[in-house]
Amino acid sequence: MRCIEASAALLRDDLMQAVSINRLKVLRWDDDLIVTEGVGARCINATYEFRPTVKSVIGIQTRKDDAPCNTLDAKSVTRLHMIDGYEESWAKRLR
To answer: Global pTM?
Structure first.
């Protein structure tokens, strides 16, 4: 099973950067947790955990173990906690 993910960044004056659309492989889908493979990169595997009941997303990036990736000086695991950027950015502007 696959799902479609789209992202875009609002700039100013209602301008928007190009929209990125990706098809992500679904690894698990139930009421409490949806897990997908992310887009990743040459040396990075990405996984996203969506928790609909608490409206949160956690991105987990791990370094691939093959050459030349295993020679990189980087963290082996990075966790990204995602928030609604639109609401957060407006809240910071109004402070």
So the answer is: 0.65
